[in-house]
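Hello again,

I reread your note about wanting to compare the complex against the isolated chains. To keep things tidy I'm splitting this into two emails, and this first one only covers the full assembly. Below are the input lines as submitted, including protein chains and any nucleic acid or small-molecule components. They are followed by the predicted structure of everything together. The single-chain runs will come separately.
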Amino acid sequence: MMSSLEELGKRAAEAKYALQVLSSEQKNAALEAVAGAFLARKQEMLSANEKDLKAGEENGMHPGLLDRLRLTEDRIQAMADGLIEITELPDPLGEVLECFDRPNGLHISKLRVPFGVIGIIYESRPNVTADAFGLCFKTGNAVILKGGKDALYSNIAISRIIRETLAEEGITEDAVLLITDTDRQVTNDFMKLNRYVDVLIPRGGAGLIRAVVENSTIPVIETGTGNCHIYIDEDADIEKAVPIVLNAKTQRIGVCNSCESLVIHEKIADKVLPALGEALREKKVEMRGDEKVRALLPDCLAATEEDYGTEYLDYIISMKTVASTEEAIAHINRYTTRHSDAIITENKDHARLFLQCVDSACVYVNASTRFTDGFEFGFGAEIGISTQKLHARGPMGLKELTTYKYTITGNGQIRP
Amino acid sequence: MMSSLEELGKRAAEAKYALQVLSSEQKNAALEAVAGAFLARKQEMLSANEKDLKAGEENGMHPGLLDRLRLTEDRIQAMADGLIEITELPDPLGEVLECFDRPNGLHISKLRVPFGVIGIIYESRPNVTADAFGLCFKTGNAVILKGGKDALYSNIAISRIIRETLAEEGITEDAVLLITDTDRQVTNDFMKLNRYVDVLIPRGGAGLIRAVVENSTIPVIETGTGNCHIYIDEDADIEKAVPIVLNAKTQRIGVCNSCESLVIHEKIADKVLPALGEALREKKVEMRGDEKVRALLPDCLAATEEDYGTEYLDYIISMKTVASTEEAIAHINRYTTRHSDAIITENKDHARLFLQCVDSACVYVNASTRFTDGFEFGFGAEIGISTQKLHARGPMGLKELTTYKYTITGNGQIRP
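Full-complex prediction:
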């Protein structure tokens, strides 16, 4: 049984000093050991997970959620592989971001350093427990985890295996601390633990993220919901437009970088919509559009204002016609969650305007929004996709889990 | 009379698109014009300020606060000079922070862009109105200002002059918007205007900053309180230690980078404290120390736990002896506000340990903490000193008022 929140905070704050001085080799060796322990002790995880699954079934948990909760041998292998992938990424710590001398002889260095203690609040996906540990550990941070209560037994087993393995490696087991109290008040108190926690990252659906943004007094990195748009400009190449929309909408439905809303220039609507409608129909995507869209696609339902603001995460797409790139940009900026939005066009001026004015983390020309992802960007594993503007935007890899400090070295300088 | 918060938010969000495309030349010309208008219309500002001062005097405002509220010809000149200085700083916008190609041919650029809309909440110092506008405008941001109610007439006059001058320059006057409703509820609502405001920066004392951190749902950059420490190590050069402490404590009393607390290795206490005590006594600094300090300085009062956690901003200093560098670091990390802390030592290992382990934005070796300042770092004008770890730490100049976006250009790429 874990101790009180205050106690956990203190232990994490203590652990961070030991963690920040570990060498890359020590950290990689520990990550490999934990990956090995996941495989060697998989039965322990599967049994714990079985308890969670049974309780979930008894409580009538939605099949989709049960699937996310479920651990299998393959998924445990994937968790282990994930840690090994993290060992292969360069260690961002120790980087000198800038250094300069002042006229008075002061030597100033801006150094990349760990945050210290990262808090992560997430839902009932036990693999997040392993991923979050791996990314925070590699960046020299202690992490305090609060997972969904439906995954409690699984998370206890995973964090126990991590902690015991770290201890065997001679590393403080408080690198990872799990909040096991499932009282909602404890989660609320966790969001106000500024004294010990440097940054809080929610991972999950819109409701969780909103709750954290509204209640946390700790600086939050808001990750993820994506009401992503694709705008088919009047100068779009239809041969590109149809496959991109189809890919962004249907290649994977339940993810934040999938396309939820289509914006179409009215001059190209009659050329692109029939082919696009057919392709979407084939994939069983429900279409909801404005009157001009519906005039061209008789099976398209009427879209409401609410549709334009909805991240469906489902086989549904909203469609809206506009009279100009400017109108498309205004519509997108009104409804986007600032994740990823794309323009399909061969017109360089329209592309430039769109790239400049769409106020999102990732703005695309002639490509699918599905590329907003740490691996696709070449960053490797990611902790999430930031949709706020403070600190980090878009895919957040290892560097985004660090901050910097200034060190200033002198020989007796005083301020005149 | 300004309109509702919602209306102000909308106008700022509209203005940001016009502001982000201004050239450096347009922005600098506008800043020069505003500086000129400040001087040409100083009587208008002085009359408005007179009303605020009169009300302040009638309400028994503290002389120190009245002084901060007061505008004089010299101070108006300084406000104008401040804007001219901002024109001389390089424009951070348009910088390509990184760009790279992916194996699938996607071209990804990470571009420095404005936040969009910055909110600033501050106390009754009318010059902040001009400074905040200048820094936000140069970085392509719209700014919504909420100043202290005691400076309302002054702020209305200053923002009117800015807005009218911008309009004459053909630039949207909504680059600066002032909240004139002094109802506290309006300030609270402002802190939750996430829909329009990208980042909120409080400028003022500990109480204001705490209120913003606790109530804002907008991402906050926490600026400023400084419970700054100087640690005199056993291997300190006393010839450096005494002048540095004296400078950091007394060169300017009421500022965040002044020294509030001294930590002294017990092995050097009897060598350094008599000289230091004499120097502090001469400057009329009240000393509050532990028993070992008091044994060497009979006029030193007894320090309490509260003393170690207090930012005095006054002629008072707390003093604590320790038995090692590690103990000094632990004490400092417990009480520091993570602003600026210094070690005085000739021992390179102690210096290295201190630089690595003290968890503050600016960590010094053998120099006064008073150098934590945008001008002293060579950044030019600053919006504040960040004491949190998200986004920016230490002095925040123009670059720190920007974020980035990714632009991704392809030729039809879809995700396999």
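For quick reference: Chain A touches chain B through 66 residues (CB under 8 Å).

B.
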